[in-house]
Structures are given as structure tokens and as C-alpha cells.
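Note to self: keep these together.
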Amino acid sequence: MNNNLNVGGQLELGFNGSARTGVMRRKETRIERAQWWFTKMRAAVDGATSWSAKPAPQPEQIWLAQ
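Structure:
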């Protein structure tokens, strides 16, 4: 394992001495994550099936032994 100290003073851990490459994605803020979540939940509610009330059951014939 390779431990490098980067310019910001944070410890960066790597494997086999390979440096991290690629573009780092900007960390999302809490508000952005909340907006994403509520957008998904609104879409789920909008796409939900509306259920109608259950119809009344058919009358049942009961035979009594005499």
C-alpha cells in the first residue's frame, strides 16, 4: 500500500504505488441530494396506481338444515 501526502495535507491511500487518476467529481451538497430524493419520490407518487374502493360482495345464500 502506498501512502502519499497530497498538497491539501490529507492522507491519500493507494494500492501498488499507483497514483489516482481521473477527474474527481464534485461532492454533492445535502440540498442537492434532498432535491434528487424528493424528485424521485414525486415521480413515484405521480406514477402510482389509484385504487378504487372495493365493490360490495355478492349476496351469499346460506342453506339451513331443517
